[in-house]
Write a structure and sequence with these properties.
The relative contact order is 0.14. The chain has 455 residues and is mostly helical. The protein has 22 helices and 2 strands. It folds into 2 domains: 1-23 and 354-407 and 424-455, no CATH class; 40-344, Orthogonal Bundle (MetI-like fold), CATH 1.10.3720. Helix 1 (3-31) crosses helix 18, helix 3 packs antiparallel against helix 9 (182-210) and helix 8 (169-177) packs antiparallel against helix 9. 74% of the residues lie in helices and 1% in strands.
């Protein structure tokens, strides 16, 4: 590593040390101390607790199910965007990214209005005469799956779309000229070449689902805890900070181990290689290829209209929570009800007349802009150094840079795990750092050239 490369990386490394590594070290320290004395009691309690191990098993199971569902939904959408005309492709991907403009909390809250007993789905089914009483679509495992898949869907679509964009269309034409039917050409040419993107999306979605908190808490069953919720209960209800820290460290250790195990798949998202080598390194199960060939052969005659219908329907569902939120803002009811019983501007007047809300909005804008600017200032040189530099362990530095964006890291940081005062930061500085570690990893995920660093 040259001095120039080191200087380019230094600001980001200092920020990581201050805002991520040191706080995580304090969490580890807390997990190993009780009453000011060194103790492994918290770890012994966590590892011997059948309840916690059951929660951990449930978390793994739900993360795996969410990953499979998300990939199943995301692949046709990414294929539609990648094979559409250029003018449509960009618009489709822009609409896929639109939900990121709304917080996870708001999107999860909107699903309560859509899936609730008096929500849009149940009312539509009752109006159609398909049901006599509302279906339990929310506050259970089904509600958690719907919300998590909806939120994680763009995270799977982007890497799959990127992998598909790198496939030369001439390969499909060559297969057709050699007599391969469309379904067979798709299963033997297109699908294997897009598999690195599928692997990258699977890794990202699974790792993110492991640390999910807000959506399962809002849409899931009251006792259907995931690990992140168990940590929150230890902190906010039981005030057992050492045990919560041990649980958080265990969760982060598992996610970190998975990141290291899947690092080539994760990094493949950024387009490390464009040859067929990734397909050999990330083999596709033969049974999946055979199933894809069968399905593609059956759907080939109606593929184009079916793909457009599917894509438009999925985009509608993807944007539905945002539309619901906008409509609820004009509701005249003082309670959550959708469709609204009437229309009113009362909530807008209440917002603009409340100084606390205005102050919070202004503060959010200042902190977000400052965080984005700071992340851009230190993330761009770091990304440039990784992209242009020639030194060992660049991939590990890349993984370190994007690690804070993982939800498991947030569960393990001092703010939610120890206590608000444990961060020992002033309110404004703490908010700025929080935005900084949110924006900077996203920047490093897509640094110049769209290529990820080799080991």
């Amino acid at each position: 590593m040259t001095n120039r490369t080191f200087l380019l990386m230094l600001p980001a490394l200092l920020a990581l040390a201050i805002g991520f590594i040191l706080p995580m070290g304090s969490v580890v320290w807390t997990s190993l101390h009780q009453g000011g004395l060194f103790s492994t009691g918290a770890w012994a309690e966590v590892l011997s607790s059948r309840t916690f191990l059951g929660i951990l098993s449930r978390t793994f199971t739900m993360a795996a199910v969410v990953t499979l569902l998300t990939l199943s939904v995301a692949y046709p959408l990414a294929y539609w965007a990648a094979t559409a005309a250029r003018r449509w492709s960009g618009q489709i991907m822009a609409l896929v990214a639109v939900p990121y403009l709304t917080s996870i909390l708001i999107r999860s809250y909107a699903w309560v209005a859509i899936l609730g007993g008096n929500g849009l789905v149940n009312r539509a089914l009752e109006a159609a005469g398909l049901i006599d009483e509302p279906l339990p679509l929310v506050f259970n495992r089904f509600g958690s799956y719907v919300g998590m898949v909806h939120i994680l869907l763009p995270m799977a679509v982007f890497p799959i779309f990127a992998a598909m964009q790198r496939i030369d269309p001439a390969l499909m034409r060559a297969g057709a000229s050699l007599g391969a039917p469309p379904g067979s050409a798709f299963a033997t040419i297109f699908l294997p070449l897009s598999w690195p993107g599928v692997s990258a999306g699977a890794a990202l979605v699974f790792l993110a689902a492991m640390g999910f908190y807000i959506t399962p808490a809002l849409l899931g069953a009251p006792g259907d805890y995931l690990v992140a919720q168990a940590i929150e209960v230890r902190v906010s209800t039981l005030a057992e900070f050492d045990t919560a820290a041990a649980q958080a460290c265990l969760l982060l250790a598992l996610v970190t181990a998975l990141m290291l195990l899947l690092r080539r798949r994760i990094v493949a998202m950024a387009g490390e290689e464009t040859s067929a080598a990734p397909a050999r390194r990330l083999p596709m199960p033969p049974v999946l290829r055979r199933a894809a060939a069968t399905v593609a052969a059956v759907l080939a005659p109606v593929a184009t209209p079916l793909l457009w219908a599917y894509g438009l329907l999925l985009l509608t569902l993807l944007l539905a929570p945002m539309i619901v939120v906008v409509l609820i803002a004009f509701s005249s009811a003082p309670y959550l009800s959708f469709p609204p019983p009437g229309w009113s501007l009362r909530w807008f007047f209440s917002f603009f007349e409340d100084r606390a809300w205005l102050a919070a909005t202004g503060f959010s804008l200042v902190v977000s802009l400052a965080g984005a600017a700071t992340a851009l200032a230190i993330g761009t040189p770091f990304a440039l150094a990784l992209s242009r530099g020639r030194f060992k362990r660049r991939r590990l530095l890349w993984l370190l840079a994007v690690a804070p964006i993982d939800p498991a890291a947030y569960r393990a940081r001092p703010g939610p795990v120890l206590h608000r005062g444990a961060a020992r930061a002033e309110r404004h500085a703490g908010q700025l750092l929080d935005r900084l570690y949110c924006h900077r990893p996203a920047l490093c995920r897509h640094y110049p050239g769209g290529r990820a660093p080799p080991v």
